[in-house]
Amino acid sequence: MRIVCPFCGERELGEFTYLGDAKPARPAAGASEDDVFDYVYLRDNIAGAMSEHWYHAGGCRAWLKVTRNTLTHEISSVEPAAGVGAAKVGA
Amino acid sequence: MAEFSWLSRSPLEHALVVGAHGARDVASGISLTEVRNFNLIQIMARRGKGAELASAATARFGVAAPAVPKAVSASDVTLIWSGPDQFLVLSKSGKHAMDILSHAFSQSASLSDQSHARALISVAGAKARTMLAKLSSIDLHPTAFPIGAAAATSIDHTSVNFWRGNDRPDGQPVFNVLVLASFAESLWRTMLDAAAEYGVDIGLSEELG
Ligand SMILES: [Zn+2]
């Protein structure tokens, strides 16, 4: 499997580290215990297109949001994760 | 209180032996040279300050800092892309040092002195590309990786900053590798093994060329 890093270009899998599901969003302050439990512990086991976080540890060290089909490993999109390229945030 | 006297040494001080290595029945196809005594500063833009850093860098170095994986050189410095909104400043020892640069970029960036945290290895010669192909998955064909191309990548599972410098006077390509000090000896030995069959000329430069 190869991932096309938006900063570095196409690279082998060995340069990347997998974090997991990119979907969970931190609940607002004061959210119920169930919502927080869900956010911290519960993950969907998706067979198909999944949004994931990958880290280009052996390259530019940017966090990426990758849409990957867990059945075929086909990657349909790669984009910088929120906050990557700190200079652009709020620019 | 204990008194310390800091002495900077190359991480390759023990591993590097100047001279011929590997095959002797062929003309040396690879030069492996460690370059010592350089200043290396990592510069990263602060939040929302990318444009400000870019103009400060142009004013300071006389060339624009690379926004894509490239290495650009001016008379006394090489700026090497190392990731989004960040680059490395490589210069001769004492030239673009931390205390000087920290003033120039105090408004727009965070700086980190890496001068003694990395080893700089130059791989050159007719077989340099062939030898590096054993260790790297980057496409080093001249059309894909021309002079000035750079990559933040891994060689033999070791993170490096890698770029192609100007060709040698004899027309052979030069590839430069910046590796973290604690990984330098391991990578050096891996490179020696990969290069041995082509005949290696091991060298040492006390100054950035
Ligand atoms: Zn990358």
From TrEMBL, chain A:
Listed InterPro entries? SoxD (IPR006279), SoxD_sf (IPR038561)
Q: Name one GO molecular function term.
A: sarcosine oxidase activity
User: What EC number(s) does this enzyme carry?
Assistant: 1.5.3.1
Q: Which UniProt keywords apply?
A: Oxidoreductase
Descriptive protein name: Sarcosine oxidase subunit delta
Top EC class of this enzyme: oxidoreductase
Which Pfam families does the record cross-reference, listed alphabetically? Answer: SoxD
TrEMBL record, chain B:
For this protein, the record's SUPFAM superfamilies field holds: Folate-binding domain
InterPro entries, per database record: SoxG, TrmE/GcvT-like
Where, if anywhere, are coiled coils annotated? Answer: none
Task: Report any Pfam family annotated for this entry.
Answer: SoxG
Q: What domain of life does the UniProt record list for this protein's source?
A: Bacteria
Gene3D superfamilies registered for this protein in UniProt? Heterotetrameric sarcosine oxidase (3.30.70.1520), Probable tRNA modification gtpase trme, domain 1 (3.30.1360.120)
In Swiss-Prot or TrEMBL terms, this protein is called Sarcosine oxidase subunit gamma
